[in-house]
Design brief:
globular; single chain; 44% helix; alpha/beta; 6-stranded parallel beta sheet; 372 residues
Length: 372
């Protein structure tokens, strides 16, 4: 189905959400139409944030907003869906468009399998009726589903369209880029050179994939790395837990701008505790690159100032490899909590693979490495 057909049927004036590769056609079409005009389209920090923004839009206009997300974002959605939007609370209607990763019977990465199995049942528990859009869904069927949803929306109920892999297409093309020069994979290569035998916790997406392949290419042990393949936004919290309970080890966290923004409060907790053995590197390419390249607000956010305000004793932005190496060397030599924001270009190798070990194997190897 062409994404324009979906937009015509939804007939909405406002969209907000978190990008998803399954919804790339929708996300790119919205960028082409509206860019990031906050009156029409906001790329939110997380899915709960998107639902709250949409609630405000409805309160101000009386109109029905659309919130898009990957199904993994349902976890962030649960709280506002149950305690803000539900008919037993305020009864705020909205339409969710949810990319269905890990659909039963469709091969996907391990972090999506269980989430895929419970996607629709979780919506049912939240009393959000859903309609599945597949590659064979017709415009007539979509219109019929929308007609069934209209009375529910009028009652202050929420509804959802769950989108299968490949169900939406778009003939346009949006090229995402920025003006930074360092590539993320090379930044990670420099980090591994300075971190030596220290444990690393890496964030969701291509960063962990690149770290895994760098270790393979250099014949290094994978056990020193915890690859946070799911649970976007929580790698710095995992690193904090490791650092506090292994004070004799220096711990590095390789984070991303989209992930850091998703749960920015984690940095406030880290800054308040100030573990002197944690080095937090945020690779900022101002984009949700792993799911298509849509922009984050990190291009308009001073993460260095934020880290300082949160209590990080040392916080610096680097734009070149010379600056990066100097910052990494200082962090390694120092004994204080440090945040390094490394500005990166958008882009990755076309032949970038995925970890060949399972998540459970990664956990066991990492725990054994820490014990050793």
């Amino acid at each position: 189905m062409q994404v324009e057909t979906l937009l015509k049927v939804l007939n909405a004036d406002f969209y907000t959400g978190v990008p998803d590769s399954q919804l790339k056609a929708l996300c790119s079409c919205l960028i082409e139409r509206y860019g990031t005009d906050p009156r029409r389209h906001i790329i939110a920090a997380n899915e709960g944030n998107a639902a709250a923004i949409a609630a405000g839009y409805h309160l101000a206009t009386g109109k029905i907003p659309v919130v898009y997300m990957q199904n993994s974002g349902e976890g962030n959605l649960v709280n506002p869906a149950a305690s803000l939007l539900h008919k037993k609370v305020y009864g705020i209607p909205m339409i969710f468009v949810i990319g269905w990763r890990g659909e039963p019977g469709v091969h996907d990465e391990p972090q999506h399998v269980w989430q895929g199995e419970i996607t629709r049942s979780l919506l049912n528990e939240l009393e959000i009726p859903s309609f599945v859009i597949g590659t064979d869904t017709t415009e007539a069927a979509l219109c019929a589903a929308m007609e069934e949803f209209r009375p529910l929306l009028d009652e202050g109920r929420d509804v959802a369209f769950v989108v299968r892999k490949g169900a939406l297409t778009w003939d346009g093309k949006v090229v995402y880029r920025n003006d930074w020069k360092m590539l993320r994979e090379e930044i990670i290569r420099h980090i591994t050179a300075f971190s030596g035998d220290d444990p690393i916790v890496s964030t969701t997406g291509k960063a962990s994939r690149e770290l895994f392949e760098l270790r393979t290419a250099t014949g290094q042990d994978h056990g020193r790395d915890f690859l946070t393949v799911g649970s976007m936004g929580h790698s710095s919290s995992i690193a904090l837990g490791v650092a506090l309970n292994r004070p004799e080890r220096r711990v590095w966290c390789i984070d991303g701008d989209g992930a850091a923004l998703m749960h920015l409060g984690a940095m406030a907790v880290i800054g308040a505790i100030r573990p002197d053995n944690l080095i937090h590197v945020v690779i900022n390419n101002e984009a949700h690159e792993t799911v298509g390249g849509m922009p984050t607000v990190a291009g308009k956010t001073d993460l260095v100032a934020a880290a300082k305000a949160f209590g990080y004793p040392k916080s610096v932005r680097v734009q070149t490899f010379a600056e990066l190496d100097a910052a990494l060397n200082a962090a390694r030599a120092g004994h204080e909590l440090t945040m390094i924001e490394a500005m990166a270009a958008i882009g990755a190798r076309s032949d970038l693979g995925r970890p060949t070990t399972t998540a459970a194997e990664n956990k066991a190897a990492f725990m054994a490495y820490l014990q050793g």
